[in-house]
Amino acid sequence: MLFSTSRHLFRGASRFFSSAPSSELSQVLRDRINGYVTADKVVVFMKGTQQEPMCGFSRNVKMVLDFHEVKFRDYNVLEDADLREGIKKFSEWPTIPQVYVNGEFVGGSDIIVSMHKEGEITDFFDEQGIPTKFSDKQ
């Protein structure tokens, strides 16, 4: 999958944007975030909630996942300043929202929207064992 390669390039580039090295993340917060990202198949750290996204980028991620009927667990970073800053260090990615699938960082709104527009998101979720509305195997 061509986009898979692009996603890894974005991931590597994130180190240049990171405001602080990941080593500055306390072990307690690192463990807490790791628990969040591994507790559910699809996790979104967002501004607001699924029911009430509080920024356009978070709303875009929610709309794409809803369109594909992908269930996800949300964490509202506006309610927790430690989580808001910690998730950026954890992923080495400077922006919110952040999407994790099967415990792995996928990217933010730009990546999710691009995967949707390029028609790659169903294949991606199928490869991850997460059926979508458009999956052959449901």
UniProtKB/TrEMBL annotation:
The keyword Amino-acid biosynthesis does not apply. Keywords: 2Fe-2S, Iron, Iron-sulfur, Metal-binding, Redox-active center. Pfam families: Glutaredoxin (PF00462). Residues 42-106 form the Glutaredoxin domain. GO terms for molecular function: 2 iron, 2 sulfur cluster binding; metal ion binding. InterPro entries: Glutaredoxin, GRX_PICOT-like, Monothiol_GRX-rel, Thioredoxin-like_sf. One of its GO terms (cellular component) is mitochondrial matrix. Gene3D superfamilies: Glutaredoxin. NCBIfam families: Grx4 family monothiol glutaredoxin (TIGR00365). This is Glutaredoxin-related protein 5, mitochondrial. It comes from Steinernema carpocapsae (Entomopathogenic nematode).
